[in-house]
Design brief:
single chain; 823 residues; mainly alpha; 5 domains; two-stranded antiparallel ribbon; 35 helices; 3% strand
């Protein structure tokens, strides 16, 4: 067993090798990929070439706006000869070897090298980009033909004559595509593999041995369906599925780029997301509450908490350039909204019309205009109107009893506050100071936003207003606070404070395009490319007494059942979480830089069905989990052949092998060791606490080393798909890290305690260990070698477990592929 231990621990160093499809980063560096063309070649052709060699002008009779035009060439011959850069005149021109293009100045060496590599790889030109175009400032009929902007169409369900495999409608679409490529699906996975996969898929935790046994012993024809239902009713379902949404909205619990100032209240938004998934909240309602919960009728505290979505951006505690700082906040809010709900990189249109997608610069600022009146609020509570009224009634008694003491405290601190206000405000530019001193009722929303940024620094910058207080005053203040504390029993418990957002009640500031000499106001509006579809016209705003209603209008447009873009985006995201890859692989980019859907008819069928059945996430999960395609094995008898034909496995001919997410690795170790605390919700904790990884404080700059080593999102940007990296740090943390070693020790102690109670043999103890860590019983050879390593004979025929070796063995189990991966 010594040799086994050494080999296994050495193998940990290469546990994380590449499995399955190449990453997006790989595709971006592959000259033969469509992604390479979109990211590196298209921008050069559009930006440097089309002005002289496009549809309007063709110097030397040469056009460079399509592959056919490149191959045909101009007066001098073919511009590109695929796979032969030396014979390609385009390469000669960008090298400045005779012909010189562009004539104004040569391209950078890196750009020339990309052209050379692209030509050598065959000059791949994606079918969806048949003809390039320069930005025209208008939307064409061709733009509207892009697949993601087309109305949803109910497709005919395939009925393949040889299909004896399909169990659901989903399968029929998949089988049809497999048959087109002369492929067969993998056999169904064994029941132990399936139950382990299902538990991780729905609740992010492995099943216990008892749960596996219960499923294996249930011979009912509806056993699988009933298990799916039970797991979706488990409160841990919301914890697991909240993780993917929190990645998307760049949830973090610290402020900004440079300082990890903790946000002690934002966890309420995280709990809102958990509760929303557990309640199976319809997607349009989920969207409305996050974008405009403050504008919705009623006084449900959860609606206000949901606006924490609008508070997740970066905040810099000492930024004096308030104008640029708020501009960055607003732009980032706009960008993330585009990423999350529209599946489009709106940020590319901030400075000019989008170079690749039909998104105008005016579209960007129309989207931003929905958010223009926003003000961040730190003075609101998550309580009903009745609860707030009751609190105020009780507070009046305390205020009356403590009026004199509080007046003395106010008088004592007033001079310090005045000096701090003066020193804080004078550090800002004069126009920002003017905003602060302007009466609130006379401000517009931008002036209110500037005043807010100034006010934040009063408390947060320089240690606060009382940092330089004289010693005598400190002592007097302490004595007064002690007197005040004597009345604590009369003071009602504070209502739960929240980080929220509302519209400013005054005049909304105009949204304008930077550098527009006319400063033309931009009204809120939707994407021009969708303007001809139902609901695509100017938004109908329903103003309220203290809100513009803009964000409600935006949320309602996103949640329209006939919005072809937003509905496809969310359904594709759910599919992605189940398979590791969306039907559209680029889940947050449905534009030309993204990849088209592998199964467009299936995506439309799922989307229409999702909308028609109440936008229920749980129903969508169940449809996927009941399908034969999801229940395939990860092994396929023709894997080598199919892998060569379909390396990305986009045709779904087998189940993907996937490494657990960072939180799932940590949670599974705690579950195996018996330490995992089951509490749901509440304030976040340090990584030392044995709660689920979802509840570990998520600091942007100094997050938990273990979780971040395994690619946890850092909250700096929207993440639709986490990286799955392979680094020595991961292996070293698993082998030598104190956290993993402590879990192995606790796991061993748990096994020993159970063995004592049951008077179990070493072999029985080890069988339990295998099943708790891997979900399956050991094979005979595995058990024999494990027993030889762990047990020794105290007397003939009386083997005993050696404690230190058991810890090492548990450590090996936690380091193994079978623990870290699901198949």
């Amino acid at each position: 067993m010594n040799a086994l231990l050494c080999r296994t621990m050495l193998g940990v160093l290469c546990l994380f090798g590449p499995i399955g499809a190449a990453s997006a980063a790989d595709a971006a560096s592959d000259p033969a990929s469509a992604t390479y063309f979109e990211q590196h070649i298209r921008p050069l052709l559009v930006g440097k070439c089309l002005k002289c060699h496009g549809p309007k002008k063709q110097e030397g009779s040469l056009r460079l706006d399509s592959r056919a035009a490149l191959l045909a060439g101009g007066d001098s011959g073919a511009a590109v000869v695929p796979h032969d850069r030396e014979a390609s005149l385009l390469v000669e021109a960008v090298r400045y070897e005779g012909l010189e293009m562009p004539p104004s100045e040569p391209l950078e060496d890196e750009a020339v090298a990309r052209f050379e590599a692209w030509v050598e790889a065959g000059a791949i030109w994606p079918a969806h980009a048949a003809t390039l175009r320069e930005s025209s400032g208008a939307i064409s009929d061709q733009d509207r033909q892009w697949w993601a902007f087309q109305p949803l169409q109910q497709p005919a369900v395939p009925q393949h004559p040889q299909d004896a495999w399909s169990q659901t409608t989903i399968d029929r679409f998949v089988y049809q595509r497999l048959a087109e490529h002369e492929m067969r699906p993998a056999p169904v996975a064994d029941r132990v593999t399936l139950v382990r996969r299902l538990y991780y898929d729905l609740i992010g935790l492995p099943p216990t041995p008892a749960q596996i046994d219960a499923f294996l012993q249930d011979e009912s024809p509806v056993a699988w369906e009933e298990l799916i239902d039970r797991l979706m009713d488990d409160r841990r379902y919301g914890e697991h599925w909240a993780r993917f949404w929190l990645d998307l909205v760049r949830y973090a619990e610290s402020d900004g780029w440079n300082q990890d100032a903790y946000r002690p209240l934002i966890w309420r938004y995280r709990d809102y997301v958990i509760d929303a998934f557990n309640a199976d909240k319809p997607y349009p309602q989920f969207v409305r509450e996050q974008l405009a919960g403050d504008e919705l009728p009623g006084d449900d505290p959860q609606q206000l908490i949901a606006t924490g979505f609008l508070r997740l951006g970066i905040y810099e505690y000492n930024q004096r350039d308030a104008r640029s700082h708020w501009d960055d906040i607003m732009n980032e809010m706009t960008d993330v909204t585009g990423d999350v709900f529209l599946g489009l990189w709106m940020a590319c249109a901030r400075c000019h019309d989008h170079k690749f997608d039909p998104i105008l610069q005016s579209d960007y600022f129309r989207l931003r205009a929905f958010f223009e009146p926003i003000q961040w609020r730190d003075d609101l509570v998550a309580a009903t109107d009745q609860a707030q009224a009751t609190y105020r009634q009780e507070l009046v008694k305390w205020e009356s009893a403590t009026e004199e003491i509080r007046a003395q405290i106010d008088a004592l601190v007033a001079p310090y506050h005045e000096r701090k206000w003066e020193s804080t405000v004078e550090k800002f530019p004069l126009d920002i100071q003017a905003c602060f001193y302007k009466p609130v009722e006379e401000r517009n929303s931008w002036e209110q936003q500037m005043s807010y940024l100034v006010s934040r620094q009063f408390e947060e910058e320089g240690g606060g207003p009382l940092r330089g207080m004289k010693q005598a005053d400190k002592e007097k203040l302490a004595a007064l606070k002690k007197e005040l504390a004597a009345f604590d029993e009369q003071k009602p418990q504070p209502l739960p404070a929240v980080m929220a957002a509302t519209d400013f009640a005054g005049e909304p500031a105009a949204t304008t395009i930077p550098d527009d000499p006319e400063a033309t106001p931009i009204a809120p509006g939707f994407l021009s490319v969708l303007s001809q579809l139902p609901g695509g016209g100017p938004p109908k705003l329903q103003e309220q007494a203290d809100s513009t209603g803009r964000r409600t209008a935006l949320a309602e447009w996103i949640g329209r059942p006939d919005n072809p873009l937003t509905t496809r985006v969310i359904v594709n995201r759910i599919w992605q979480q189940h398979f590791g890859r969306g039907l559209v692989p680029t889940a947050s980019d449905f534009g030309h830089l993204g990849q088209p859907p592998s199964h467009p008819e299936l995506l439309d069928w799922l989307t229409i069905d999702f909308v028609e059945h109440g936008w229920s996430f749980k129903r969508l999960h169940k449809q996927i989990l009941m399908s034969a395609v999801w229940q395939q094995a990860a092994e396929h008898p023709q894997a080598a052949e199919y892998q060569a034909q379909d390396p990305a496995e986009k045709w779904l001919w087998r189940a993907p092998v996937r490494r657990l997410e960072a939180e799932a690795i940590r949670d599974a170790m705690l579950l195996a060791s018996g330490e995992l605390e089951p509490a749901v919700g509440g304030p976040s904790v340090t990584a030392k606490m044995p709660r689920r990884g979802l509840y570990v404080k998520r600091l942007r700059n100094k997050g938990d080393p273990f979780l971040h080593a395994f690619d946890m999102a850092d909250g700096l940007k929207s993440v639709s798909e986490r990286n799955v990296t392979t680094t020595p740090t991961q292996s070293l943390l698993m082998i030598n890290g104190s956290y993993v070693l402590a879990r192995a020790k606790a796991f061993a102690e748990r096994l020993q305690q159970a063995a004592k109670v049951e008077e179990a043999t070493p072999a029985a103890l080890l069988r339990r260990a295998f099943r708790m860590a891997w979900g399956r019983a050991p094979r005979d050879e595995e058990l024999r070698r494990a027993t030889e390593w762990v047990a020794s004979e105290a007397s003939p025929g009386q083997p005993v477990v050696e404690a230190e070796r058991l810890v090492d063995f548990c450590h090996v189990l936690l380091n193994s592929n079978e623990f870290l991966y699901i198949d």
